[in-house]
Give the backbone structure.
Amino acid sequence: MRKYVLPIFLAAIWISLSEFFRNEFLLKQYWTDHYVSMGLVFPAEPHNGAVWGLWSLMLAVSLFIIQKRFGFWPSVGLTWWMAFAMMWVVTGNLAVLPLTILYFALPLSLLEIVIAAWIIRKVGGEKV
């Protein structure tokens, strides 16, 4: 059980903390300014945070499953593509993505997935 639950749980915690730090401390002003320019209020209610927590858990589970099938780097690339690149295409298409954040979000999201994949491998007892 420890081989499955603990790596997923710890990776989900890392992803949640990474997302929170990036979006609440580093990029918050970009988000809020962009939403104000559209006449909207940036969604920052507690239930929004809970949904992002669920998203983090789903991402950790997905990464865990993908790593069982593929190697470390292929799983990092595939997971990043499915979680971030596709999300940015959709949010960009809806015009709710401030494109300037991508200068920061792209490398930080890659780092987020690399560390989450490392946590899953290390805590799960597999070679890194």
